[in-house]
Write a structure and sequence with these properties.
alpha/beta; Rossmann fold; 3 domains; about 45% helix; globular
Length: about 725
Amino acid sequence: MLKDCKWSEDRSYESNSSNEPIEFYLNGLLNSKSYDLLLGYFSSSAINLLSQGFAAFISNGGNMRLVINHILSEKDKIALERGENKKYDSPFDLTDLSSLSSTLNDYDQHFFECLSYLISKKRIQIKVIRPKGSNGIAHYKKGVFSDGTESVGYEGSCNFTSYGLIQNLESFMTFLSWENDISGKFIKKTTKKINNFFDETDKSVDYLSSNEIETAIQERFKTGKKIEDLIVQEEELIRKKIDINQNPKYKKILQKYEDHIRLIRKTPRIPNNGKAREYQVEAYDKWCANDFKGVFAMATGTGKTFTALNCLLNEYNKTKRYRAVIVVPTTALVNQWEEECLNFNFKFVTKVSSKEKWEKDIGIGITHSKFIENSFIIIVTYASFPRNKFQSYFKDLPDDTILIADEAHNIGSPNISKTLSSIKLQKRIGLSATPDRNYDEVGNKSINDFFNDSFPFIYSFTMKQALDNKWLCDYEYIPHLVELTEDEMNKYKKLTAQLVRMGCMGESNFDSSRKEKCKMKSLERKRIIHKASNKLNVYKEILENEFLKRGNLKYSLIYVPEGKEIDIDIEDYLEETEEDFKLIDEYTRIVSGFDEKVSQFTSKTNNREYILNAFEKGEIDTLVSMKCLDEGVDVPRSELAIFCASTGNPRQFIQRRGRVLRKHKDKSIATIHDLVVIPKINKNTYTSDERNLIISELKRVIDFSKLSKNESETHKILKDLIILYDINLEEFI
């Protein structure tokens, strides 16, 4: 905080004195949340000091308001360049950044890269002014640092020379808000002047658009660097300056700052020094109150990963160490979680999967934890978690290690649940948009017991809440009725009759052998719905209409129906069968007839990251997938989805909807087309099998439509159907 800093006793700073300007700027930048700067004009000497500490200011969550004079005319440049012996520094010409960037030194380049980062994150406001008439060049040098409670202002000389601020006799006075009335009045007056510039109520200047400058800076200095990269770059520049500087006082100041940067680099924190959302704070509090156990039932896209890592961060802040095992369904999620951990500055991450060599790292970490207070995060797939090799290390982890189970419904699967009784770790977090395991009471009990939780769980954040709070984007939902052929309906009825004879309908208390037979027969019947032949015709019509309306199929996701459903949960088995690939190829050929920029996204796809990046950039218009976009793949740019799979599994369609509803700056609304299978309509009569089929599909349709922006349109589409089959829609709402 600014009040805790050591400021010069006489409140003045001057180059080559006991109170170096660099010390003032570093105190301000390292302890502020906002910085208002009236710079006058850009030049190398004018920004020399700001380039030291700027990245740390950004890392601390800093926001900036900058008032500058835009040098537009040759006359202005000449006026600035006049001076005794022409020693005044030439201004940077912001109208020609292309030429400018080739003349910048490393410190100037760093400053502009930091500026570009702030612009990209919308954390800087720039106001460009030009004095009216004969008032001359706007030649300010004053500013105000603020930490949210206290402020420090300064005002000084404007003789920026080509030797820079450090070598030149740079001097200024400072004003501390908590000190006296004079200081308070100066800060208030300066802040008011800046406010007047941004409100454009100061009539002594003309106001110019900053869009051109901001765009030019972003385009010319857009390096893709994260704040962590800028911090590293700043550390290197500081070290370089320490090595060449001969001033002991100045060198000592920089060494102190270098130590501060090293602390920043190794300390975990919320990305971009942001803060958790209110509901994420609430989730942590409820987890603590439930003896550090519980399930976060949060809609896809609402920040489950962030919420869990925020819990880990809060625990770190208590003990100054972090220890966690994160269990995830897929290798894609292993990499995704690693990236999120690194964003929180959790450095010591080990990945465990069939594709990683991990034993040595874990072994060393466990050995060290017995003697020192070390930190670690282990990310492991559900496939690797129960295996003896991993369990032999897992059992020796320290007791304060937090177990985080992503897509926690997997905890209830037979392969995982058999290991639960041997787990000694008591701090546990389960994450899932749909914790309930469909038709699996045994698995659900395992989940509830393990997390000491049950429906509605210690914390839930529904999709309705997410949509209402604008954490997800709005969507339109369009169901398309697909009739079974007469032959398909006859097969469906035949299998239903067999299920009745086997005693599979409406019963649940039967032995495992009969349960297995019933499941296989149900899957056989389900495949008739999945592979309904008329789906292809409806699918073509949707593509044709969307192509005619949009002129392309950009940012589209196609979910192909499963060929042969495997007799285990979809999250446990994401590899497609040979029959699946035939269907994927068929649906891909159809979409390529409208738009050739299409790519498949399957378990065999090796260059996944490249494909997702190309999709994000619009280089690939459409992704065709079956199961691999269900869990662990973020595609926020997607805005059109076609669900050709008729899934009755709530988890599956909720996850798929969540994929396309993720927010993106260029997306205002998403569109979901859903192929809904119904019997061939006979207006004179219907059977109970036909009615039950419609009811099973309607559960999904109503769930989708009730949160959409066009719910009434869905009801119109269904109107004739629900009247014909005597269905009360209120039962589903």
